Amino acid sequence: MAGQTSPAPATAEARPQRADARRNRERILEAGRKAFADTGRGVQMDDIARLAGVGVGTLYRHFPTKEDLVLALVQQSVEASIASAREALTREDPGEAIEWLVHEAAEKMARSRGLRDAMSGIEFGDDNNPWQSKDKRRSSEAVLERARDAGAIRADVTVDDWQWLMCGLAASIADGADPERQAEFVLAAVRPR
């Protein structure tokens, strides 16, 4: 019919992004990470767009809501955590690998304190929490199993225990606790008695 436009084909989202669109998305993510670290969840999307050097329309094309941006940042954090677990597996000593992993996580958490605040406003369902994804749990279990087998951690430490300890570590650091001190508390909790 004349004057009507047809909807965009469903495959439009499956197409790879242009190089400039990818660069804009990365700039927005980096600006979002910095803005949330500085301000917490109260940061305005206009401020993020300005910090990224893009127009508000560009920001909203990539991330229609603040929650979408937070979820993308969380997903990046999860991917970084999985990469850290893989790196820990390359370390010869399983006990040293656990210590490195906890301290590495604490450092990252300290650099993104505001993201924890922003995440607190999102309702994750059991199936939608990126921190509970199969890949995340599998990577954590591989590190824990190796450390348990070597006697470097308590034999009864489960992936769920580990996830809760990491969640507590993130919460304490987000509230201003010293990252190194909190990391040592986590390590004390998992070391064999």
Topology:
Elements: H1 19-39, H2 45-52, H3 56-62, H4 66-89, H5 94-111, H6 113-119, H7 134-149, H8 159-174, H9 179-190
| Highest-level CATH class of the largest domain | Mainly Alpha
Bin the helical content.
55-70%
Report how far apart the termini are: 76 Å
- Tell me the structural class: mainly alpha
As a whole number of angstroms, the C-alpha radius of gyration is 20 Å
What fold name goes in the CATH topology slot of the largest domain? Answer: Tetracycline Repressor, domain 2
Name the average pLDDT. 87
Unreliable residue stretches: 1-12
Q: List the quaternary state of the chains.
A: single chain
Series of secondary-structure elements, N-terminal to C-terminal: HHHHHHHHH
The CATH architecture of the largest domain would be Orthogonal Bundle
* Strands, total number: 0
* Most strands sheet: none
**CATH level-4 homologous superfamily of the largest domain:** Tetracycline Repressor, domain 2
Shape: elongated
Secondary structure tally, helices? 9
Strand portion, in percent? under 5%
Give the number of domains: 2
